[in-house]
């Protein structure tokens, strides 16, 4: 009994098979194992106990527990990423015994290292005396012989184990060589784990090529959103979901950063802590960065860090240009090797960036120590990016340098193509950097903002920005001609003066705008719309065709196609559908579906779907269109009224009187503010009269046909009896009769023939549909699907 109990004590697990089978250690006072022939500090070879309240890294622990095929594991990350915490949690959950060595600066000696490794392994399973004898202080230690015998003893072990060297990055020279030898003796099923802030000075590249190697870095060690939430709760913070998401992004899952952010927020206000206000320059985080890293760096490296912090991303050539030096590529590679909170952006190590919080501190220190240098560094960056042809980066660094003229020049050249390609939010963020006075100094910027405000339905802002552009544009004929042309296009699009003025302004603008100017497609769309409002459909279609041919602006291109689709509807439905589908493909490809200009195509496509009886798809399309309706105001009145007309017509087809009437009322409200919209006012009046003639729904609800009734309509246009229709639809004759009566009531008719005639008028069935239209009985399902 004593022998079995001693064999299963945690300090001397002689029987790993029983341990793996779940046997529990029972301490019954066995004799102590033989003392080692040398002294070690017990705390350095003891497996750390996870602290209470520590976030459990279950996913990573399970990954490590299952990683038996990896004899070597590297866990490398800056301080505060929870390396020791993770490994201690793993040690307490794995069935394999763990030998643990916590290394510090005083352990960088091969004999000292081997003594600690031997002591840790002896706790797992006693080592033979021959492996310990060369390390005895009484005799002159023999590192080479000790390494040979210890390696042999490790290789001879049959029971799997895990050896953790925490702080392995502190080793160098002969100690690293000894470590490399030990790695080579790890038997199958066992593992050696090297943890540290930087990778140990082993030939890692050769190790990767030579066999299985598991590497965990900052990306793998970063806390997940759920883990971050648990950590914040442990720090007595209960942030909202969006705050947690923002914190995880800003701290990049860095555990210490999350915890220090929580402390900083609570220190500011324990009742209502604001985690969003905390940056890497806050004293809690700044003190950590300084004590753990910056205080140990040479002045030249600190200077490099501070000055390069103006850059969002870094490369060797860029840093050379901005810092007016050479060798930056080597410096960046060195910073990465030393885990100085620098993140590689590609596999080739050609581009880097600093950790967000670390960059906050570096930028603050640059502002404090060398404020006069900040504009110079940013301007150098702007010049470098402009030489590379990167307009957006040039714009950002020109703003940072305070170079308003350069920023305005770049913005006015790229605002239209960027916003028209699905990135209007980026353009709006650039525009926000210009105050009222700056807008008057740069009317070319003000007119860009006016167009975007108008298309987003913000009438007051659109007018204010356009007025600033008009005040700022030079009075001389030769200067600012293109800007004045753009102002005319926006004024025309607002259509406050009627379609005649709209046509005149855009015709004049098109004469001034160069053929390759970004605004030209948009000017053509507004010009074509003026022809539409004047009832000149053929001329309008010709202009829209030019706008859609070879256009480099996807938004204007898609809108021109949608307008052509509307013009073709009613007399060439196939062409109308083809144009609508082409516009839809462009909108989806360029991710423009959230743009108000996309609403016209969505509504047109919905009507096409209704003509083919695809009711569910049409309704989904109508729902998407109505989500954009709040952006469609009298800022661009013709587009807003056109969209509501198309939506209302679709709801008339669906016999939804209430929805159609509500949309006409909205169109009327826009016409009250912009009455001079030409034929659109007539179309609204005609549709309103048609809606008034629709029968009211019983009980005041919707008068729309149900899905079953819409399915029945095409079959009513055949010679089939109610019984035969019921057989084809797998329902009873009485059910078909009930549905047919409901259809008659909703369509305001009293007979089957009148119902078919009315349905054909509404586009619910093909005009002249009859028995021949459906073909043989086997084609019924395809005809009604």
- The proportion of residues in beta strands is under 5%
Mean pLDDT: 86
Q: What is the subunit arrangement here? A: single chain
The percentage helix is 55-70%
Q: Strands of the largest sheet, in order across it?
A: 2-3-4-1-5
Question: In the CATH hierarchy, what is the class of the largest domain?
Answer: Alpha Beta
Total domain units: 5
Distance between the termini: 80 Å
Uncertain parts? 1-32, 698-703, 769-785
Radius of gyration, rounded?
38 Å
Largest sheet: 5 strands, parallel
Shape: elongated
Structure overview:
Helix 19 packs antiparallel against helix 20. The chain has five domains: 34-221, P-loop containing nucleotide triphosphate hydrolases (Rossmann fold, 3-Layer(aba) Sandwich), CATH 3.40.50; 225-278; 381-473; 532-700, Tetratricopeptide repeat domain (Serine Threonine Protein Phosphatase 5, Tetratricopeptide repeat); 707-784, Arc Repressor Mutant, subunit A. The protein is elongated. It has 785 residues and is mostly helical. Helix content is 60%, strand content 4%. The chain is built from 42 helices and seven strands. Strand 6 (342-344) and strand 7 (352-354) form a beta hairpin. It has a five-stranded parallel beta sheet. The chain has a two-stranded antiparallel sheet with strand order 6-7.
């Amino acid at each position: 009994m004593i022998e079995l109990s001693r064999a299963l004590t945690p300090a001397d697990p002689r029987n790993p098979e029983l341990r793996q089978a779940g046997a529990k250690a029972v301490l019954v006072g066995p004799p102590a194992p033989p003392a080692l022939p040398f002294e070690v500090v017990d705390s350095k070879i003891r497996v750390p106990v996870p602290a209470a309240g520590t976030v459990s890294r279950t996913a990573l622990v399970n990954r490590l527990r299952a990683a038996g095929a990896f004899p070597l594991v590297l866990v490398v990350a800056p301080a505060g990423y929870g390396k020791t915490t993770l490994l201690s949690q793993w040690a307490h959950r794995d069935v394999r015994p763990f030998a643990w060595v916590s290394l510090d600066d005083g352990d960088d000696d091969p004999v000292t290292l081997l003594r600690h490794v031997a002591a840790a392994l002896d706790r797992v399973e006693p080592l033979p005396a021959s492996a310990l004898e060369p390390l005895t202080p009484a005799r002159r230690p023999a590192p080479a012989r000790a390494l040979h015998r210890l390696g042999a003893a490790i290789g001879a072990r049959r029971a799997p184990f895990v050896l953790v060297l925490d702080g392995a990055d502190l080793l160098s020279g002969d100690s690293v060589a000894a470590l490399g030898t030990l790695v080579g003796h790890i038997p199958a099923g066992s593992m050696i784990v090297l943890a540290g802030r930087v990778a140990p000075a082993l030939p890692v590249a050769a190790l990767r090529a030579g066999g299985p190697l598991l590497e965990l870095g900052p990306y793998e060690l970063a806390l997940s959103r759920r883990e971050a939430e648990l950590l914040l709760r442990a720090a007595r913070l209960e942030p909202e979901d969006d705050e947690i998401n923002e914190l995880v992004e800003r701290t990049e899952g860095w555990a210490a950063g999350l915890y220090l952010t929580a402390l900083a927020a609570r220190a500011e206000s324990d009742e209502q802590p604001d985690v969003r206000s905390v940056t890497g320059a806050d004293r809690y985080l700044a003190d950590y960065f300084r004590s753990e890293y910056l205080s140990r760096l040479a002045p030249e490296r600190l200077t490099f860090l501070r000055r390069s912090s103006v850059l969002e991303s870094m490369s060797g050539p860029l840093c050379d240009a901005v810092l007016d030096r050479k060798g930056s590529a080597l410096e960046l590679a060195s910073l990465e090797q030393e885990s100085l909170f620098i993140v590689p952006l590609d596999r080739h190590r050609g581009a880097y960036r600093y950790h967000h919080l670390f960059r906050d501190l570096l930028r603050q220190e640059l502002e404090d120590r060398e404020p006069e240098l900040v504009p110079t560094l940013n301007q150098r960056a702007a010049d470098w990016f402009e030489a590379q042809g990167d307009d957006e980066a040039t714009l950002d660094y020109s703003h940072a340098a305070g170079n308003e003229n350069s920023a305005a020049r770049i913005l006015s050249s790229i605002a239209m193509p960027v916003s028209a390609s699905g990135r209007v939010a980026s353009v709006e963020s650039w525009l926000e950097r210009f105050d009222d006075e700056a807008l008057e100094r740069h009317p070319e910027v003000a007119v860009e903002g006016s167009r975007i405000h108008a298309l987003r339905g913000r009438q007051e802002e659109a007018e204010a920005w356009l007025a600033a552009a008009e005040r700022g544009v030079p009075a001389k004929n030769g200067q600012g001609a293109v800007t004045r042309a753009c102002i005319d296009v926006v004024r025309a699009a607002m259509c406050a003066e009627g379609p005649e003025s709209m046509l005149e302004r855009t015709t004049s603008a098109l004469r001034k705008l160069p053929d390759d100017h970004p605004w030209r497609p948009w000017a053509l769309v507004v010009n074509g719309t003026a022809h539409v409002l004047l009832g000149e459909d053929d001329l309008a279609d010709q202009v829209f065709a030019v706008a859609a041919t070879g256009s480099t602006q996807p938004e204007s291109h898609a809108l021109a196609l949608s307008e052509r689709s509307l013009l073709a509807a009613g007399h060439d439905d196939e062409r109308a559908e083809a144009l609508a589908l082409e516009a839809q493909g462009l909108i989806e490809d360029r991710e423009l579906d959230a743009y108000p200009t996309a609403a016209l195509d969505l509504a047109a496509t919905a009507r096409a779907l209704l003509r083919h009886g695809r009711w569910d798809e049409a309704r989904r399309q109508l729902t998407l269109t109505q989500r954009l309706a709040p952006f469609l105001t009298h800022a661009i009145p013709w587009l807003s009224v056109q969209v509501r007309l198309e939506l209302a017509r679709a709801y008339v087809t669906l016999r939804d009187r209430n929805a159609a009437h509500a949309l006409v009322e909205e169109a009327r409200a826009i016409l009250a503010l912009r009455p001079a919209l030409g034929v659109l006012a007539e179309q609204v009046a005609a549709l309103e009269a048609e809606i008034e003639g629709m029968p009211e729904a019983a009980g005041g609800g919707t008068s729309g046909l149900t899905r079953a009734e819409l399915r029945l309509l095409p079959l009513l246009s055949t010679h089939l009896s109610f019984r035969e229709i019921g057989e084809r639809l797998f329902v009873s004759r009485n059910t078909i009769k009930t549905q047919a009566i409901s259809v008659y009531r909703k369509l305001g008719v009293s007979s089957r023939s009148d119902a078919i005639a009315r349905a054909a008028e509404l586009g619910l069935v093909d005009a002249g549909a009859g028995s021949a239209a459906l073909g043989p009985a086997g084609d019924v399902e395809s005809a009604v699907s």
